[in-house]
Design brief:
Blueprint lengths: L1 E4 L2 E4 L11 E7 L2 E6 L5 E6 L7 H16 L3 E6 L5 H12 L5 H25 L4 E4 L6 E3 L8 E4 L2 H8 L3 E5 L2 E4 L5 E3 L4 H12 L4 E6 L20 E3 H9 L7 H10 L3 E5 L7 E4 L15 E5 L2 E10 L4 H11 L7 E3 L8 E9 L3 H10 L1 H4 L3 E5 L2 E7 L9 H11 L6 E5 L2 E7 L3 H11 L18
Parallel strand pairs: 5-6, 5-13, 6-10, 7-10, 8-11, 13-15, 14-16
Antiparallel strand pairs: 1-2, 1-4, 3-4, 8-9, 11-12, 15-16, 17-22, 18-20, 18-21, 19-20, 22-24, 23-24
């Protein structure tokens, strides 16, 4: 057990009781908040990113951490990413062999990275005197759609994982991959796919918690590479984490958080390079928690988007639907959309939207093909933009957030090109050259700077 007082957490040793980090029950006892932890053997899923297993020493360090969890009485399932920059190196290698690699074969190539990691990790755990069994995504029962490069998980049938756990072994699963339900081909889940693999497995196995190990100590109020004074959050809600992930925060992938919210699975984001408690991603903030009165939980930024402006669009019914349907048919995700008021004299308007840079050429090509049908004048493409987003459930009850935000941008000399909002988020688009300065200005304006030492990025990549 432990008590959480106003000045922090105080551990209380209880002889013969083994505690875990998952809060099962909580109650208010005066100025204390009391957490009762399960004393039975639990099941945890641990995911380790590429920076955590970047080399042999990293693999051995991770193995020791996994072994410690197993010896503490937990059933352990591990999901591992490819070592370091292996995936990027394989993509580059494929590009040298073929300018347009076959998607099926590219997926077959890329899944090799995780298979290397899982086998090495199983060997390292074996050297520590414990049994570990490694499984590919298909062997682990990760069933996906047939879209190569960005397949979605549609089912998990973890029979072999459950068998390994029953035999007392540690199950190690290759992240980022699965098998198509229709074609039976090997598929990959896209960027952040190992996070999704881990949460999907945790949900299917009814795990107590999914631990996401990365190279930072948790979820911070901003990217610590840009804002060294960023503050680590003790907890954040699924709702807030979804907005942060969608807005460019790379510590957790959007689909991973969506999956966790659907099954109300707690996620613990922490560093594999330290033993510090990380950030809990949960359904609701604990009553009396430190984030309850926070207006802004965090600030996210994204440099991976581009802006497309369609100039001189006829302002008539159905035109916008035709434009965006053509984009949707190409499976291109659109983020922010702004449409100007049409000019009375011409009846024409401009429509701007943002999308991933990687889809820019495809989107402009599609629009050019329907230009004659729609009758718009021209297309403008801009890949030198950056997106900044404020996220916080406290916005619902605190007026003046927008005014404070825009005043900070003005004082920092940042020109705002687009604005988008939700109930708990405000996003702007500005010049990419101004983005880092804008992040720091907003972070300071909302008193998010930490008074303690600078945040540490152990591995350098933030994942």
């Amino acid at each position: 057990f432990f008590f959480q007082a106003e000045d922090g957490i105080r551990d209380v040793a209880v002889t013969g009781v083994q505690t875990c980090a998952l809060p099962i029950y909580q109650d208010n006892c005066g100025s204390f908040q009391f957490f009762c932890h399960s004393t039975s053997v639990g099941l945890i899923v641990q995911k380790f990113g590429g920076s955590s297993v970047a080399d042999a020493e990293g693999v051995k360090r991770v193995a020791a951490r996994i072994a410690a969890s197993k010896r503490a009485g937990q059933q352990v399932v591990v999901v591992v990413s490819a070592m370091g920059d292996t995936t990027d190196e394989l993509i580059d290698l494929a590009g040298q062999v073929s300018p347009l690699p076959n998607p099926r074969e590219l997926d077959m190539l890329l899944t090799a990275g995780e298979r290397i990691s899982m086998a090495l990790l199983a060997m390292a755990i074996g050297n520590l005197g414990l049994e570990a069994r490694s499984f590919t995504g298909s062997q682990a029962g990760i069933i996906t759609t047939s879209t190569h490069g960005r397949a979605r998980v549609i089912d998990v049938t973890p029979g072999r994982i459950q068998e390994a756990l029953k035999d007392g072994a540690i199950a190690i699963v290759a992240g980022f991959q699965g098998i198509s339900q229709d074609t039976k081909d090997i598929t990959t889940l896209g960027r952040g796919g190992s996070d999704t693999t881990a949460v999907a497995l945790a949900a299917a196995l009814d795990a107590d918690v999914c631990e996401i190990y990365t190279d930072v100590d948790g979820v911070f109020s901003a990217d610590p590479r840009v804002v060294p004074a960023a503050r680590k959050l003790k907890s954040v809600t699924y709702e807030e984490m979804l907005e942060l992930a969608a807005s460019g925060a790379k510590v957790l992938h959007l689909r991973c958080v969506e999956y966790a919210r659907r099954y109300e699975l707690p996620i613990h984001v922490r560093s594999s390079f330290s033993n510090l408690e990380g950030t809990w991603v949960v359904k609701d903030q604990p009553e009396g928690g430190s984030m309850e009165q926070a207006i802004i939980s965090g600030i996210a930024h994204d440099k991976s988007e581009a802006k497309v402006t369609i100039v001189g669009v006829p302002d008539r019914t159905g035109v916008a639907a035709r434009i965006f349907q053509s984009i949707a048919d190409a499976d291109i995700n659109i983020d922010m959309i702004v449409q100007n008021v049409s000019a009375a004299a011409t009846g024409l308007t401009d429509i701007s939207f943002t999308l991933p840079k990687t889809e820019g050429a495809n989107a402009t090509s599609i629009l050019q093909k329907i230009q004659g049908e729609i009758g718009f004048q021209s297309i403008q493409y801009d890949d030198q933009i950056g997106k900044l987003s404020l996220v916080g459930a406290g916005m619902r009850s605190h007026p003046g957030v927008t005014a404070t935000f825009f005043a900070a941008m003005a004082q920092a000399g940042v020109n705002i090109e687009m604005i988008s909002t939700s109930e708990i988020r405000i996003s702007i688009v500005c010049r990419v050259a101004d983005l880092d300065n804008a992040v720091r200005a907003a972070h300071t304006a909302f008193d998010l700077d930490s008074d303690s030492s600078e945040a540490v990025v152990y591995g350098g990549s933030g994942r």
